[in-house]
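Could you join me in thinking about how sequence relates to backbone shape in a protein? Would you write everything just below, so we can both look at the same thing?
***
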Amino acid sequence: MRMVTFRTSYKAKRLALALAVVLLLGFFLLPKQLQSVFQEVGSPIGWGVSWPLRAVSGIQGGVADFWSSYVALQGLQEENMELRKELEQLKGQHSQLHEAAAATERLTALLEFKEQEMFPMVAAQVIGRDTGNWYRAIILNKGESDGFRPHMGVVTPAGVVGRIVKTTAATSVVLLVTDPNNAIAGLVQRTRDEGIIEGTISGLAQLKYIPLLSTVRLGDRVVTSGLVEGFPRGLSIGTITRIYKSEGALFQFAELTPEVDAGLVEEVLVIQSPNLQTENEPSGTLKGKRKP
């Protein structure tokens, strides 16, 4: 009798185990279908079995949503990288266009200034700058093969830059108006007092040998006098910002702020007829014959 009970209990356990396996497979493989079946039964057992099915179905939906979101996120990251690359390319193109427009504007101003003047000038590009303590100079991309010689004046539409002091076949060295070793004959435009313009250690310029009785004052403009080779009369050099004299000196001195910032110059004009002289112009720029 005990043997029969044991076998019956063993068979019941195997049956329950098989049923549990079937239910678990149903949970994972067909959760929605089994859930609907048990819900239709409506019994407490059906509701109890359908509850874990809901949980399994929810987990499957969450996993599917997470995977979809992950795939979509990867796609957005790749698209974002592509957009960043396109943005960098557009920035580079914008910088190139902006630089080309600025160069065109500068060259147009040089050409207009050149056409207004009656003496020949040749355009050149700045390819180097001397940043040492001994000289203040720039280097041009043209030289003897282009007709450049020492003592030729170098200008921009704004005014005087300096004077050529050394040339090679393809380059020229220009000593700036702010260099203490440079000397240019200058003229105070309002009072007509003449003097010599030299550079200063501080990077400005000064007008030397102004008569003591001169009425020169702050704000007066100083131009080239045309008395020495290199520059015709009337090219703007700078504006007087300070006037001083030493005790017992026979002359006054004036400090100038140059019209041209040589550190920003990229293109210049070289005057090839340095001895040409014109009449005084009250505007500070040399006006010549215009082309019809």
Notes: The chain has a mean pLDDT of 76.
